[in-house]
Model the fold of this input.
Amino acid sequence: MSRVVVTDHPFKDTIMEQEVAASHGAEFLEVHAVSEDETISAVQGANVVLVDYAPITRPVLETLAPGAAVIRYGVGYDNIDVAAAKELGITAANVRGYGTATVADHAAALILATTRRLYQQTEALKAGSYPAPWAFGNIKEVGDHSVGLVGVGKIGLALAKRVQAFGCQVLAYDPYANVDEVAAEGIKLTTLEEVFSSDVISLHLPLTKDTEHLIRTETIAQMKPEAVIVNTARGGLVNTVDLAQALREGRLAAAGLDVFENEPLPADSELFSLDNVILTPHMAFYSEGSIYRLQRMAADDAARALEGKPLLGAL
Done:
């Protein structure tokens, strides 16, 4: 009998996954693994593994059935040893495109909230103050900001359309971009240095050894003191300590962060004490529609794996 295992998930239920397993005569197991040992214990002999954040390391992969499939709930897959999976003949896959609009909406919301200083205004009112508008510094019209995208895949393109509607000029750096597609959207493809000179820098790229801590003291030094950083991609792209110091010292105007190096964000993080940062709990991907699509697409690829068909999300 085939075996389907959900190692961990953020959903209300796994009805769709259970239905796929049942319709293919497969055993189904749902756990909430965190450590490598817990994951190994859960997935031994599994034909299909659906995973959120559990570590899918080589020792974990070595316990799977021959020709198994590992499907990540989401786009990022830095918790999966993809190289080891290939060596072992295991198909690793992710789910792409399920939350493009939702993440772009969230990034746009963070841009609006930070450039309009909404957090600082709210806190002032909560504290019993009613300051004059100019007390919050120079606030430009949204359309007067240049927005620099680091990474211009589907989410970056979707965000570009949203901020262009406000009148923003959009620049982008992405060595893997479809040049014609980017140009057709009215986006200027340029160098990373020029993108870092934008009023708003929004991150839309995966976390790799080359992109880890892309935002750090040295790169922040290339930015304007009036610049805003928005991250709805991967937390490790930003050196949290360096960013907090720059925000505190006025070397950056603000930041809007949905993802963090360590999640949940540690209670002693300096970010909590700053009034020029907006923090959200890694939920840019979340909407009723996006969650349905995420589970549906993952479950459909699980069905393909059980049927011996190529996975749509294969890496």
The mean pLDDT is 97. Residues 288-306 form the longest helix (19 residues).
